[in-house]
Amino acid sequence: MSDERKSLAMVVMSGDMDKLFGAFIIANGAAAMGMDVTMFFTFWGLRAIKKNVSTGKTFFGRMLGAMYGGDIMKANPSKFSFGGMGRWMLGKMMGGHNVQKLSEMRDLAVELGVNMYGCQMSMDVMEIPQEAFIDGVKEPVGVGFFILKAQNAEIQLFI
Q1: Which of 17, 69, 81, 120 could be a cystine partner for 75, CB 3.0 to 4.6 Å?
Q2: Is the Cα dihedral 26, 28, 33, 35 positive or negative?
């Protein structure tokens, strides 16, 4: 039997509340089972690792930051958003069943040693600097880095 840890590699492209819940539930479960977990956040998924700070240097970057601003707590469900009402309603329903908040699941991922990386290209395009991310997020990487992780992982997911 090999002493090498099994691994999971996950692309997180969506910034939707329900998809982020799924991503962090799977990542935390795998990490709790002793797996080496890599999460690669790209485009809208970057919201999951971002602080609630303004981003963007150019006019378009600032516009994008304002339109899609906020952090993980601003993530809306992929269906039934209702201008934030869906987020509030689902939050109440989940709280009633003792489900952790999305931000708490993300914090648990950091505690469990989940390796979280921002996609350098997406960060450049969306004008989101590394300083805009929560503590625990590793230095940004490119797709080649993720492909190597995924190539060697037993489980690969795209959310």
Answers
A1: 17
A2: positive
Strands 155-158 and 137-141: unpaired
State if pTM tops 0.85: yes
Q: Tokens at residue 31, please? A: 């990490």
Fold of 7-158: Hypothetical Protein Ychn; Chain: A, (3.40.1260)
What does the pLDDT profile of the chain (159 residues) look like in tens digits? 455 889 999 999 999 999 999 999 999 999 999 999 999 999 999 999 999 998 999 999 898 888 877 888 888 878 777 777 777 777 777 778 888 889 999 999 999 999 999 999 999 999 999 999 999 999 999 999 999 999 999 999 999
Neighbours of 148 (CB within 10 A): 13
- Look up residue 151 and give its two tokens: 């190539």
- Domain chopping of the chain, boundaries: 7-158
Whether 132 and 153 have beta carbons less than 8 Å apart is answered as no
